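It is time I had a proper look at our fold encoding. Can you supply me with one protein entry, sequence and fold together? It will help me judge whether the discrete encoding reads sensibly. Leave the record below and I will have a look:
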Amino acid sequence: MEFSFFISYISDMEKVRKGNSIRLIENGTEVGFISWSLDQGVMFLEHTFVDESQRGKGLAAVLMDEAVKVAKQENYKIRPVCSYSSVWFEKHPEEKELLD
């Protein structure tokens, strides 16, 4: 039951790509984002942020999943710069082919 609540909670949030970032919006308020810079086909994942009131709900992982989708769609490699993205790739070896 808790897992289905989590999916419903996340699906109620809007995921907005804005330039070199993806933002999570809930009821018109930004609750998290991931941002990157680009250089010669490499996404440098620089910042992952989730509002303190929303932490522990898996939102940073949702943002990483979205950034990975962008990299795959655009044929980018990824260089994790922020600590969260580095740890995420350690936990997701199936995505290691994206690493620069």
Remarks:
- Residues 1-8 have pLDDT under 50 and may be disordered.
- The radius of gyration is 13 Å.
